[in-house]
């Protein structure tokens, strides 16, 4: 996984991490912040409003998670990161977590 830090559309720094084991408490925090049923129903405007509120409500959790994944990254650097790249990292972490959970359930 990698996360680029930008200054005026130019990459000025890149953080990298091979893997990340998501802590159960963090998974709980994310699940609590995301209300899938609210996002799946309603008008486009209502769905967008719910999605925006979900992001706002989970901002601290996401920041803490990114800072845990990429050791040394600062709040100021996070402000200079593309949301699309953060979303990609989060998706990679979630996929990896569920893959590991699947492997464990097959062993049992």
Return Rg in Å. Answer: 16 Å
Shape: globular
The strand order across the widest sheet is: 1-2
Largest sheet: 2 strands, antiparallel
Helix content: 55-70%
Put simply, the count of helices is 6
Task: Give descriptors for this structure.
single chain; alpha+beta; two-stranded antiparallel ribbon; 6 helices
Task: Describe the 3D structure.
It is a single chain. This protein is an alpha+beta fold and 108 residues long. It has six helices and two strands. It has a two-stranded antiparallel sheet. A hairpin with a 2-residue loop joins strand 1 and strand 2. The mean pLDDT is 79.
What does this entry show, briefly?
With 108 residues, the protein is α+β, with helices and mostly antiparallel strands. The protein is 64% helix and 12% strand.
Give me the secondary-structure topology:
Blueprint: E1 2-7, E2 10-16, H1 24-33, H2 36-40, H3 44-57, H4 59-69, H5 75-78, H6 83-107
């Amino acid at each position: 996984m990698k996360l680029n830090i930008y200054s005026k559309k130019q990459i000025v720094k890149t953080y990298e991490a091979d893997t990340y084991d998501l802590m159960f408490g963090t998974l709980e925090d994310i699940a609590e912040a995301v209300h899938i049923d609210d996002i799946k129903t309603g008008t486009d405007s209502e769905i967008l409003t719910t999605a925006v509120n979900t992001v706002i409500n989970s901002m601290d959790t996401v920041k803490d998670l990114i800072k845990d994944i990429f050791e040394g990254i600062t709040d100021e650097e996070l402000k200079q990161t593309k949301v699309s790249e953060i979303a990609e990292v989060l998706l990679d972490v979630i996929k990896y977590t569920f893959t590991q959970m699947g492997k464990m359930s097959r062993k049992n």
